[in-house]
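Let's practice the habit of predicting before peeking. Look at the sequence and jot down your guess about where helices and strands might fall. Then scroll down.
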Amino acid sequence: LMKYLIFSFAVSTAILFGCAHNHDHQHESANNHNHQPGENCDLHATDPHEEEADHQDEIIFPAEQAARTDFEVQAVKESNFTSVIHCSGEITASPDDQKFLSSPVSGIVVFSGKNPAEGMPVKAGETLFYISTRGLATGDAVVKARAAYEKARADFERAQILQADRIVSQKDVDAARAEFLRAEAEYQPLAAENENGVPVKAPQTGFLTGLTVTAGQYVDAGAPLAAVSENRRLRLTAEVPQRHFSDLNDITNAYFSTGGTDTTYSISELHGKRLSIGRSTSTGTSLIPVIFEFDNPGELVAGLYTEIALIGKDNEKTIVLPLSALTEAQGVYYVYVQLDEEGYQRREVKIGDSNGREVAIIKGLQAGERVVTRGAVQVKMAAASGSIPHGHSHNH
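Done guessing? Here is the structure:
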């Protein structure tokens, strides 16, 4: 019983001391906050200094400094944001933009003095290759073609004379003429032969692409040698996972970028269009090709691999920001919200789909807030100071 009484007394004393201390603390807090008699003096009441506490993480970026940089602040607003399918692909030449070169005769490939190479600029009529027929076991094809041509021409001329004397019929003349035209067509491309062989010339001004032969290689007549592309129109082939097949008819545009550059291109802005949607997957894969054609802005070439964002139908309204508004640290994304003319606050946000230029903000922002959309890196650098200049006021 004595132990119980001693324990009860100790507990009661602790409670009374705590209440007295709590009351004194509340009274002191009330005095510091200048509460009027009768006002609620709850410990959780608003502290007039809380506003200053709210700005302890404020970043000051002077207006005159912002004016000297590429800097922009925009009010956040909701807008329609289209669905996006991310995939990869490749840029190829447009068939309408290139012309192919083939060997006019069977023989050995001889490179011109310019030594043709992939991507080399060429001019229309410029000799790129020679095809030499000399020394072949089958004999000199040019000599054979010339002999056949001369014989066919002589036969046709003789037939015309004999027809005038009514010795041969019109049918015989027509047959002789057909043989002459065939022999002429075979010999004409070879008539320009010189000591190097039969020249193969560029059919148009452009860039050499699709080079398939090497010097000294034997080729048959009609074998492909290369192509010359004007590089004005290009194609983009997007390889889309088959799970998106039902969404492909809704594709209206595509954004794409190539490795080593921050530039994002828009098919629609390059006067392009969607040409086709594959009705079967590519050989050996489960990917469906979607092909676009567009004007080359000048710096793109066939063969580049790309990252692509296919743009589909509109979704419900959401907050959308340009990608330039985001900064990232260890996989977490942030934006900088403007508090006043020179004050900014870093705000964590959760992002959704991105089309390569813009990104949907799922969480962290409300319509009407003002966000740095260009120059966010400059504000991030200013955050290193971590303090508010003396005399800075918060007019929010």
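How did you do? The longest strand covers residues 305-322.
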